[in-house]
Amino acid sequence: MHSFKEARISDSDVSSWQIYQVVYPGSHNSLYNYISITTSSSLNAFDFNADDDTDYLFKKKRGNFTFTHSEIWKVRNSKYLKDNISPSKYIMMDYMKVALGREYEYQMLEDEIALPLHTERMNRDIMQAWEMYELIIPGGLNYGYNFATGNYFSELQHIEFGFDEELIRSQNSDVDMMQFFLNIRSTRDLVKSELWRLFHQIN
Q1: Distance separating alpha carbons of residues 109 and 25, to the nearest angstrom
Q2: Residue 198: what pLDDT?
Q3: Cα 56–58–59 angle (5° rounding)?
Q4: What pLDDT score was predicted for residue 21?
Q5: Cβ contact 98:108 at 8 Å
Q6: Residue 9 and residue 2: Cα distance in Å, rounded?
């Protein structure tokens, strides 16, 4: 499995591959506890047997792993600390449900309101990277979510430093705090949050 992934990366089919352990799932009855992330600039890279990832996990951990499902996401925006694109030890994944017709409004909120705050967190060395994703497939009204954000950290303690009043006012001292959070909540529903920890990587 290791050689399989390395071959795909060396052939420029895939740019990176990581496995994260879901240490805090988004629900009590979550059906998965590991996430395999394959990154590529081409959708054709995902025309392969997804069971190869679980086969690797089986050999690595000698456990009983069952493949549950696959999703294809597109990165809509990103910001990295000092151009550092190495996988972070922790990812906080937030899954969003954005109402039909409000996709552009939500993306503008992430780009113009959230991104500057995340950038300030990186300037304070309490965050390594941030990305916004749009779900390409599967989808539909009943799927549950259609956007997500990934917050990348090097230390677990940094996840508690979120959008507090001090950080928000550092970007706009005159902001109406109640209206600020109302604007965020009006554009999307936060479906679930999960904390992942890096298990294995090939770059």
Answers
A1: 26
A2: 95
A3: 65
A4: 94
A5: no
A6: 11
